[in-house]
Structure formats: C-alpha cells, structure tokens
Amino acid sequence: MDLADFIEQNLAILVRDWVEYAREISREDRLVSEERLSEEQLRNSAVALLSGIAADMRTHQNAFQQLAKSRGAGAPSGFNDAAHQHADDRLAHGFNVNEVVAEFRALRATVLRHWQESSPEGPTAFQAMIRFNEAIDQMLAESVRKHVERSTHIRDLFASVLAHDLRSPLGAIVNSPELLLHDEGLSANGVRAVANVQRGSRRMKRMIEDLLIFARTRFGKALPVSCTSQDLGRICSDAAEEVSATWPEADITVTLRGDLRGSWDGGRLGQLVTNLLVNAVRYGSGPVTLAVAGKDGGVTLIVGNQGNPIPSSALPTLFDPLTRASALERSGTAAGMGLGLYICRGIASVHQGTIGVESTETGTFFTVRLPSLPARNDAADAR
Fold it and tell me: What is the pTM of this model?
C-alpha cells in the first residue's frame, strides 16, 4: 500500500497515538485550563497536518522539484497554510519552538512506526518514505518560521508599547530635578541627591528613546529625521559635556578641525555622538578622544578609547541589535551596547553616511563619515 494511502486509511489510529503524546506536552507548565489544548483541538491539528502531507506526497515531483523541496522551496499554498495555522494555534497556547519541534518529531515517529508494522517492501516504499520525510520537514520548517516570526512581532510590539507608555512618567521625573535645583533652601546633600536623580533619569530617557527607535525600525519604518543647518562642532561639544556630567570620572578630549557646518538632524547626530562616547566610557579604559574634521563636502568623526581590543569574531555583528562583544565591564573589552551601536548605524545610514570600527591592541576607534549636504529623503523627513 502506498504511504499516502496508508496515512489516510489509518488516520484515526495515527491521530489517536499522536494526540496522546501531544496532550502530555500541552499539560506541562500550563496550570490554567484555558491555556491547554483540548483533545478536539489536538485531533483537528493532527488531521490537518497529516492530510496536507498525504496530499503533497501524491503530487507529481520530478528530480528538479525534489531538489527544490530539499532546499525549502516549492510547497503549495495549502500545504503552508496548515503549517502556519499549527504555529498560530501553538503560539496562542504558549508553546515554545522546542515544543513545536517535539510535536513534529512525534508525528514522524508515529507514522513511520505504524508504516513499518505494515511490512512495506520494494523501492517504491523507500521512495515513499523519502517523500514523507521531505513533506514533514518542510511543514516543520514553515511552522517554526511562522512561530518565530509571530513571536518576534509580539515581542517588538510589547517593547514599543512599553517604551511609549514609560515616556510620560519618566518626563515628570526628568523635569522635577530642574525645579528642585532652583530651591535655595536645599541642603548640600539634597543637591547631590537631586543631581544623581537628574543624571539617572537622563540615562533612562536615552535608553527609552533607543528602545522606541529599535521598535520602530523592527516594524519596517524609517528613522524620522528633520535636517536643518547645524554645526557639528557644537553638537559634539555639547554631547561631550553631557556625557562628562553623567560620568564625572571620564576623561574626554574633543578636537575640531575644518568646516563642520552642514544640513543634518541635530538631535539625531547628538544621539549618535552621545552613544559612541558612552560606549567608549563604559567599555574602554583611559582617555576618550573625539576628533571631528570637515573636508571636501563631508565630515569625519572618530571616537577612540584604549582597552582590550574587541574580538575579531564579534566585529561582524557589533552593530546588530541586542548584541555585546563581551560581558566584561569597563576594565575589560571595549564592547558595544545592546542598542546604542545599532542606533548609531541607523542614524548614519539615514544621513547617507557610514560607520565602521577598528580595534587593535593600540585602541578601539569608531569612524563616522557623513556628507555635509545629504540628498533629500522624503521618507526619512516624514514624521
């Protein structure tokens, strides 16, 4: 008997055995009854998966199509729909990716065990097993891809909502120290305490702004900028003062040369420079240098610090979001923040510029190159 026919004729037995295993997975760590999959839901899911696999196995497939399927291409839309529905159902009930994979592993084992007991013989049986494994592997890949895609979207949406909702209460915290510092009756200890609150709240504000930018770009939206006439020298000097106020122990030297006037988003460039300086102060050691030079219709900005070099293996992903080159603190490797360097790359890119890094035993240097007059980008200018 053909394996596809075997699956359909023994569907009830196959579903029963698989549901018994899947029910155990759905019970683990799910104390709330609403979070558990009912037997009917499990049964319907198994029927949809097995029916889709059997239908796919009956589809004519030449050598070229078989090669394409082995590389994850060529599945019909109905086949993928079953995999996507399975992923959505499992995500809604709190299944993680490992549990989704375990379900498919059990489904494969259940079918092949019963198929073997029917004593299939000949080359057609071997070919049928190949087709079955191809189909279930592709359905597994589609289900996992959909699960990860949806999980990531939900996580990014949560981060966006959280960052947005935190802005209002944090705004009150940021503004309050400004009022308190004008109170002449405040004691010396009170002034120091208020200054600490002010520095801490400003750092929190920067982190929330970075989180909002991260969430925005993850949803495929361009980083908003509004370019006006700016003096990059003033922007860099202000950024250095701000970082020095937060980290009084930091030794930051600013060098300015050439024509540093241009058309940029001043707030965004200030954020870029601040992120690079904070990164150098937190993860490097010794003095921090900020050198800015204007020449031939462009500017070059270099932030350097001493310290252990960034491992070469970390450089390719250093500007990726939520990554670090090292878990060591300031005395260790000069590493990137989870979002800071990612934001820097986005700001440089939206100004038609570039950012790169070189790290050796002599120091770590981040280099930003920007045109003084970036080409107009209506999408980026939109707010």
Answer: 0.57
